[in-house]
Specification:
Layout: H1 3-8, H2 10-22, E1 26-30, E2 41-42, E3 49-50, E4 54-58, E5 61-67, H3 74-90, E6 94-99, H4 104-113, E7 122-123
Parallel strand pairs: 5-6, 6-7
Antiparallel strand pairs: 1-4, 2-3, 4-5
Length: about 120
């Protein structure tokens, strides 16, 4: 989810964190209050900051999670997902996408557009 959407969807982000905690994820960092903010990365070309929505650890492996909700700027979301997928593969980490009812087809279309159709979103 891009920064402007995070303010509107804080409740779903909290629900996602609770879901991850119940599935054994630890040391959760999220881009909301009451949690430590994950490390941000800056794109040299545009100067935009890219921050994963949630970063957690399970069984010694780091997972990057991004929330997929319908957005007015899908291009920024696609570039964020590609970056996080590449970053996670470089460091032997994992990248997952979390979505909810009403956003499944949007998420699937976005994943197929950027050739990440092998990713199965976590449906909450």
């Amino acid at each position: 989810m891009i920064k402007s959407d995070k303010l509107e969807n804080k409740e779903f982000l909290t629900k996602s964190i609770n879901h991850l905690e119940s599935h054994g994820f630890e040391n959760i960092k999220a881009d909301i209050d009451d949690y430590e903010t994950p490390k941000s990365y800056i794109r040299k070309e545009t100067g935009n900051k890219i921050t994963p929505d949630i970063v957690a650890i399970k069984n010694g492996r780091k997972y990057f999670f991004d929330i997929s909700l319908k957005s007015d700027t899908p291009r920024l979301l696609k570039s964020k997902w590609l970056f996080l997928d590449t970053l996670s593969r470089m460091n032997a980490n994992r990248f997952r996408i979390i979505t909810t009812r009403g956003h499944y087809s949007f998420t699937d279309a976005m994943l197929s557009d950027i050739n990440l159709a092998n990713k199965t979103p976590i449906k909450i």
